[in-house]
Amino acid sequence: MVTRSGVNAVGGNMPSALGMFQRFGLDRQLGRHLGHVLVWGMLAATSSASTITSPARAQEARAPDVAAMTRSVVGVKATVPSNARSAESLGTERSGSGVVIDGSGLIVTIGYLIMEASAVEVRTADGKTHPAEIVAYDNASGFGLIRGRYGFKAEPMRLGRSAEARVGDPMLAVAQGGLEGVHATLVVGKREFAGYWEYLLDEAIFTAPAMAEFGGAALVSAKGELMGIGSLFVHDAAPPLAAPGNMFIPVDVLKPILGDLLAMGRSAEAPRPWIGVTTREAGGRVVIQRVTPEGPAAAAGLRPDDAVLAVGGQPVTSLAEFYRKIWALGDAGTLVPLEVQRGGRVETLSVRSMDRHRHLRLNPTF
């Protein structure tokens, strides 16, 4: 299960992880979580996870400035109209974090915080509040961009290379709120992630222990570089353990589309077909949980509890397979033939897909 408001088990050298955490100067924060981390490490001792850098080698590198990290992370508050498409599921008052990534006040956050927002404000580590403008919302990646205005100033954080993150790497998860928002964490997995809202990442980063303030939080490496943006709470961060944790969108997903987001407010790639359903996997089938009102699936007669057996005549058994087969049919607007089981019958429905951005009631900026 995942929550918005999955992963190789942890292995490696746990004392080395402790040494790395001590480099951050976070013994008190670590104390809240270290017991869980050590237990998970012992349970997964037979895994083939990467070995963590030794304390001696870690000391060779300059310890990152944790206080500077907190100055790069801001609080984000968004107000969303009550008639927004996402108001019922995500609320009209949303709050989380964002990370300043350049000298002009550009902030990357998780997209659902600002989706359909009519007003956004940011709060810096020193407590100052500034209005912010929405720069981009990109449904495919999950990222949102905003820019602080009217005297907003904050230290930018360098973008790292999330491809270099390894299972077992100690990192910091940094949310708004200064040092109180800093949490010691470990990378416990890198794997595909399929979200119930027609969302798919080829590789997401999973961390543990879980933090509550995950939305838009920064995942920061031992070099002090941004590695990912917090998206979700998950109950299965490190299968087969029932281990809660968080999912982060890797920053490498942002880099190739950043120019497009700044220029156009979204990726320049052709929009994917969206049909307007939330789904779950059950017994090797994709089951419809909810049909978006006034969306394509609703217009075609798809119903909750329908089990999708095939897309375009090709069987599907997982969310990832379901999404990829839909997207392979063409761009937004393409007709999506679905074979569904409804009660004791098998029916065929054709859904005229659309661009989700056209369905949302987005800010006129877009």
UniProtKB/TrEMBL annotation:
Record GO biological process: proteolysis
Protein name: Signal protein PDZ
Boundaries of every PDZ domain copy: 261-344
Lineage: Bacteria, Pseudomonadati, Pseudomonadota, Alphaproteobacteria, Rhodospirillales
Matches recorded under SUPFAM superfamilies: PDZ domain-like, Trypsin-like serine proteases
InterPro entries assigned to the protein according to its UniProt record, in alphabetical order: Chloro_Bact_Ser_Proteases, PDZ, PDZ_sf, Peptidase_S1_PA, Peptidase_S1C
Keywords: Hydrolase, Protease
GO MF annotations, alphabetized: serine-type endopeptidase activity
